[in-house]
Design a protein that fits this description.
mainly beta; N-terminal domain of TfIIb; SH3 type barrels; three-stranded antiparallel beta sheet
Amino acid sequence: MSSLPRCPACNSEYTYEDGDNFVCPECAHEWPKLAAAEATEAHKVWKDANGNVLQDGDSVTVIKDLKVKGSSLVVKVGTKVKNIRLVEGDHDIDCKIDGIGAMKLKSEFVKKN
């Protein structure tokens, strides 16, 4: 796997370095190496289903019935979850739900209280 960033214009993986720039051979887009370094240093912003920014310790409400994988349990609509923790990955919320226990949720299925 290449350590070079993907092209910001066309998302091509075939970028290469040319002096102080990165170049995309597919769309001919060029951008400075400094811009790529600054983009990787910026931290991720998590948003709920309504576009509100989430932070560690927030309380959220589930907006859709969610089946718990490997179990017959279901997290019902309207379930309130307190003190969430945001993590990198597909399921980006670590939390503990009363009656179910520790689990991970996707931020697209919750709304901020």
